[in-house]
């Protein structure tokens, strides 16, 4: 039986993340977007980060102390007839794995660029992740109320640095302290903060530049945008609230709506009636007294409703959705159903893991959620031997949550944790202390590189036997080879042609 609500709801879903280099203005833009979407209450929270954090568990203090945002979450709001799901990503690059996973759950990314600084290192890196999946990118050039680079130079830089066509959607009127608003190239309308006289020199300059831009730069073509080859560019100032609604209007107008999600067997279309969802993020509950965890699931197809029983494909067991949480800023209680593109939080006690698939019966596993080979490997030092068992359990739980990666050496040595950035170790240490009452330290290991090893069974077993002290099993029991240097890793790769060594593992 076909459900008409699915056909009606899918096209009006917009699920996106904001990618940027720290300080470009992501937090400010997020707040302005939420305000424009009427989610003022939420916006208040974004701003009052410090306030909110004070009530959370101890490890959150790391965020507060260092003024960084560790937590990924989702903010849902209505705007322009669309339902927007804005997935927040951690700003600090030590938590980049989290960001990458979140990007597997979006249909579009807004790339925020500081008008004075242009493309920066982290913007570029995050962009590359989006490109891997051909995620359409909308560009917002922020801080036009300050000294900025020449607009053409900025557009050139984006185009060259990212090998991407740029199409200006708006053009700034005035610069720096005299930034007055924008001109919309498609509707040919002016959106100004204040009235300007017809002969204002800022308008004259804008007309001159727009004329040139229209000749020199490609027009917006939705098809190229959808394929991730062309980015529409919006100029503005998040702080002065200029250009923000133009950005949202564009997202509402030309999407993109939820995309198909790749699985091992087939691409699942958003418009399918069958219910599917992908777990892309696990977060500890903010209450340290409960071991509840929140799994964030992106609905990939069908209609998900409260109380529904779904199949947890990895274990084959039934999973009842008793209390899915929706993150609408308004009318929180009224929302009982979610569609493709929506993100719901599912409280659980550790059943759900990153990369898991939930369906209404089909044996289907989504792919594409990555684990990255850690760049820092440390042995966990436990001072109180009585707590060894508790530590083992805690490490598994925190690794399932994605705080660190856990490697169990095959020779029985104490566990090794792997991280991409050292802040992850700080989070692990303070959470072990605060939530499990297990104080630990970290010791160096002889290893600097980790690679997942796959290949012919006999060859793999032989390799493991020969390298026992450098072999470990990851959380899923998959074998990992640890090496002390790039030289040693290369040697292992060269000498074992029957095996493959991977620096990215697709979960699922
Ligand atoms: P994030 O690190 O990307 O989240 O950046 P924030 O939103 O925290 O902004 C970094 C700094 O730039 C803060 O001091 C903001 O007040 C400032 N900022 C953000 N947007 C603008 C803008 O449009 N104009 C100006 N002048 N400053 C801005």
From TrEMBL:
Record keyword Nucleotide-binding present: yes
Record-annotated Tr-type G domain positions: 11-259
Pfam families assigned: EF-G_D2 (PF22042), GTP_EFTU (PF00009), RF3_C (PF16658)
Name listed for the protein in its UniProt record: Peptide chain release factor 3
Cell compartment(s), UniProt: Cytoplasm
Coiled coil among keywords: no
UniProt similarity note: Belongs to the TRAFAC class translation factor GTPase superfamily. Classic translation factor GTPase family. PrfC subfamily.
Gene designation per UniProt: prfC
Organism: Bombella favorum
């Amino acid at each position: 039986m076909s459900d008409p609500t699915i056909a009606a709801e899918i096209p009006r879903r917009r699920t996106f993340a904001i990618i940027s280099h720290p300080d470009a203005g992501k937090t400010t833009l997020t707040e302005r977007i939420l305000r424009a979407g009427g989610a003022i209450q939420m916006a208040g929270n974004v701003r009052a980060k410090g306030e909110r954090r004070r009530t959370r568990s101890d490890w959150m203090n790391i965020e507060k102390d260092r003024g960084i945002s560790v937590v990924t979450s989702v903010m849902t709001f209505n705007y322009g007839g669309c339902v927007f799901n804005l997935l927040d990503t951690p700003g600090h690059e030590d938590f980049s794995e989290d960001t990458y996973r979140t990007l597997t759950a979006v249909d579009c990314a807004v790339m925020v660029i500081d008008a004075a600084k242009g493309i920066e290192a982290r913007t570029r890196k995050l962009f590359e992740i989006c490109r891997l999946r051909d995620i359409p990118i909308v560009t917002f050039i922020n801080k036009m109320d300050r000294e900025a680079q020449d607009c053409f130079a900025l557009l050139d830089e984006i185009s060259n640095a990212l090998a991407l066509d740029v199409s200006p959607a708006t053009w700034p009127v005035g610069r720096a302290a005299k930034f007055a608003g924008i001109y919309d190239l498609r509707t040919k309308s002016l959106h100004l903060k204040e009235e300007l006289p017809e002969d204002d020199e800022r308008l004259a300059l804008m007309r001159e530049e727009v004329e040139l831009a229209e000749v020199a730069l490609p027009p917006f073509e939705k098809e190229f945008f959808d394929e991730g080859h062309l980015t529409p560019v919006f100029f503005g100032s998040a702080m002065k609230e200029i250009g923000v609604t133009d950005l949202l209007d564009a997202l509402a107008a030309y999407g993109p709506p939820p995309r198909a999600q790749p699985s091992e067997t087939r691409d699942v279309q958003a418009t399918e009636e069958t219910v599917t969802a992908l777990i892309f993020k696990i977060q500890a509950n903010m209450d340290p007294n409960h071991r509840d965890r929140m799994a964030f699931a992106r609905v990939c197809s069908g209609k998900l409703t409260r109380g529904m029983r779904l199949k947890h494909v990895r274990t084959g067991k039934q999973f009842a959705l008793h209390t899915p949480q929706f993150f609408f800023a308004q009318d929180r209680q009224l929302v009982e159903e979610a569609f493709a593109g929506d993100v719901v939080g599912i409280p659980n006690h550790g059943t759900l893991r990153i990369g898991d698939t939930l369906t209404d019966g089909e044996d289907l596993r989504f792919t594409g959620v990555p684990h990255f080979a850690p760049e820092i490997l440390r042995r966990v030092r436990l001072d109180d031997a009585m707590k060894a068992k508790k530590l083992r359990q805690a490490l598994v739980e925190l690794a399932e949550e994605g705080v660190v990666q856990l490697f169990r050496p095959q020779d029985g040595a104490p566990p090794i944790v792997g991280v991409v950035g050292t802040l992850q170790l700080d989070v692990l240490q303070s959470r072990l202390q605060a939530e499990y009452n297990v104080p630990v330290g970290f010791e160096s290991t002889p290893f600097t590189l980790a690679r997942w090893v796959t290949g012919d069974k006999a060859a793999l077993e032989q390799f493991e036997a020969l390298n026992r002290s450098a072999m470990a099993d990851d959380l899923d029991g998959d074998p990992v080879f640890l090496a002390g240097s790039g030289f040693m890793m290369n040697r292992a790769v060269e000498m074992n042609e029957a095996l493959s060594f991977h620096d990215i593992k697709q979960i699922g």
